[in-house]
Amino acid sequence: xxxxxxxxxxxxxxxxxxxxxxxxxxxxxxxxxxxxxxxxxxxxxxxxxxxxxxxxxxxxxxxxxxxxxxxxxxxxxxxxxxxxxxxxxxxxxxxxxxxxxxxxxxxxxxxxxxxxxxxxxxxxxxxxxxxxxxxxxxxxxxxxxxxxxxxxxxxxxxxxxxxxxxxxxxxxxxxxxxxxxxxxxxxxxxxxxxxxxxxxxxxxxxxxxxxxxxxxxxxxxxxxxxxxxxxxxxxxxxxxxxxxxxxxxxxxxxxxxxxxxxxxxxxx
Length: 268
Known about the structure:
The chain is an alpha+beta fold. The protein has four helices and eleven strands.
């Protein structure tokens, strides 16, 4: 045990030395204060502004003492802009660069880096942002709203689809093919079919909106949009046909009802 004490003391002395080597505070260089962008609208230009501060003195460095440049990377990591020199605006002491809309033609994630260099020191920052159709990102509140409407639409779809499948439309005949009893709610089946159609179209519309505004799966928006447009184009013919079927069902029911009141079995 006595031999272990010197080793333990030596270890305790070494640990602070090793830990202290990891904590290095820079006292020189440039702190780059940049306009952080999290989301940007597709096919629109953007103006980037940057300030450069001297870490040791804490005030802004100005041109020509310091120059700042900009790099931009696309979704695949390819460099679209390389060392593009930012213009210095003397009155505002800011470095500025206008990036053309042609660099933002695809939806998804992009990244950039800003480098500022003085005569003996420099600094840089790097970050990323998302290209969307609207220039907005889906918030938690919006996500919950979309989720609520999707779940509500799915629930209504299941309910109406069940009715459309199980509710009979015609009066059920006996083994001889004659109607001996009436089912007066055939129109409910037609209404359930129409509502099932509308609910499915609603689900496609919500999905299309999510894909258009917030998600960037290739071809997903076109698929949902194509399906929605076809269903929307057919919704009015479906409604007209449904009214005709309900009218036919009503007339047939009245016809069968009068026949049964006279005691005459009627074939369907």
